[in-house]
Amino acid sequence: MQNPSQYRIPNWFLNREKDIKDGKTGQLLSTAVDNKLREDLERMKKIRLHRGLRHYWGLRVRGQHTKTTGRKQQHHLQKRANKKEKEANEKGKLIEYSLKN
Prior knowledge:
InterPro entries: Rbsml_uS13_C (IPR027437), Ribosomal_uS13 (IPR001892), Ribosomal_uS13-like_H2TH (IPR010979), Ribosomal_uS13_CS (IPR018269). Residues 60-101 are annotated as: Disordered. Keywords: Ribonucleoprotein, Ribosomal protein. Belongs to the universal ribosomal protein uS13 family. The chain is mainly alpha-helical. It folds into two domains: 4-68, CATH 4.10.910; 71-101, no CATH class. It has three helices and no strands. It has helices spanning 31-46, 50-57, 72-90. The protein is elongated. The mean pLDDT is 79.
């Protein structure tokens, strides 16, 4: 549905309320949703918003507790980092490797 306002659908029901660039409300379709989400995340990272930094670090964004839950992802990242470091040491090259590639 290209023009939901013609069918009297309220603005709060649409998937793009008040776009950052043009300030318009609209309904995005298929890949446009992915593109806008990617642009928004890149903008947040660029201006170093708290939410953007949490996305960059791979942490929970929406206020969830992180002390005891959600450790599986970090475990996999640590295993991958250890594996890369081990491979580098076997080749005789000592490199510093961060968790984020």
